[in-house]
Amino acid sequence: MKNYSVIFLLAIFSSCASIKKHNEQRASCIPPEQLKEDIDFAYSKLQQMHPQLYWYIPKKELEYKFDSLKQTITEPLTPLQFYFKLQPVIAGIREGHLSLRIPRKKFTKTEIKRLEHQKGMFSRFEYYISGDRMYIIQNRDSIENIQPGTEILSINNIPVSDYIKKYRGLISSDGDNTTFQPYFLKDLFFNFYTAENGFGTQATLETLYEGEKRTYTLTRETKSDSDLEKDKEMQKKTPEKKLNDYVASSNSYNRSFRFLDKDSTIAYIKVKSFSRDYSDEFYKKTFAKISHAKSSYLIIDVRNNYGGSLYEINNLYSYLADEPFTLIKPSQLTSRNVPLRTNYFRKSTPLEYALKSIAYPSYFFAQTFSTYKKDGKVFYKMKADKPTKPKKESFHGKVFVLINGGSFSASSIITAKLKNDKRATLVGEETGGANDGTVAGFYSYQKLPNSEIRFPIGLLLVQPNINFSDSRKGVVPDVTITENMQDILDKKDPQLDWIKNEIAKEKQNKGQ
């Protein structure tokens, strides 16, 4: 126990690393030779741990990109400046899960509390990006009476198009997919912007609406007592919030269910994220209701769902299957020791660090015996690569699935499987995630030695158990229907409407 006390004390001291020191490092300039060392380090770790590094880019081409980057490093750079040089090369690997973490300023507890007592400037709007143009499509608090459909021309006199062109190069989907970027970029745009410009107290927007240019000044307002009380109320976990996986930051649910018609023949499930939280109970209750109603049609909406838990999608598929199925193929690793490089102690509090130290031997043996070799390759044991039986209350009617460019990772795995098994009709646009799988699963969180930029590397090649398309594309819908900004502004849903009309036709034909 004395040893664990020492570990506990060491953990306390290490967790007290100065925020000031971190921010000074972030603002300091790093010599070119050290930055080049970081580039070599990043490529070396990718070669060691990434199981499908040259899936979408030839080895020679990637080596040329890294070498060319090193030749451009001729003067000292801050970590953030270096990030904007290295990340486009990482994005060029065309693996959507592979990305450097933005080197951000850290805040003290006092600063965090102050920010929590203020309203955001940019987060109170919803955005739409088309090409190099950005529009506001929702103004939740009616700030300055800015109308949905307003184009943002510039922020603090810098054209938005310049930012979009710069930030687009930081984002990669899987393979040659082109539908993912507009969805992901609209969500990440102000993450990049604030990393560059900080959390300012005001910003000037030049806008265009119905041919008229106007200028607005946004300010970071202080929350009222009623706002703070509302925040507290939103944080409370009710049974409904747990079941539907409530997200306080967006005041929305990750999962929801309803019938779309009076006679309950059309069931509709919306999943914004496969978070796994309370998902067993949600699907059990939902499909019990569908079974009791004897619904003939089921619509599953995974548009703008960036993925999540393999466990959850395997469980969901078990409610759609007519016979035992295997969701994914065995997941490949680069070596047997890779599972032990997942940063077991990452983000641990001092107490967690001490407890994890005690449990580490069990973790070590569990990870060691979770791999196996076959045909000269190393694989990781996963529940989803074993046969799964259908649930007793599985749905046997007709299934439609709504997809778009924001359907990524686990969303693409399950939709690729549904399409391959001819279990559903996919409607919408090509998914942002690849049809033939991706590299993710769990990560090794590397840190570049000189810039100290974090670099998580996916360790598992996860592929749906299907006949591969070798298309380098996302999951292509059976029926392609796109949605434009005007549809959103008019609160129209042409993709869902197509399914409703198709069901109405089928009902009519059956009635005849």
From TrEMBL:
GO terms for cellular component: outer membrane-bounded periplasmic space. GO terms for molecular function: endopeptidase activity; serine-type peptidase activity. Residues 211-482 form the Tail specific protease domain. It holds the Pfam family Peptidase_S41. Residues 220-240 are annotated as: Disordered. One of its GO terms (biological process) is proteolysis. SUPFAM superfamilies: ClpP/crotonase. It comes from the Bacteria. PANTHER family: CARBOXY-TERMINAL PROCESSING PROTEASE CTPA, TAIL-SPECIFIC PROTEASE. This is Peptidase S41.
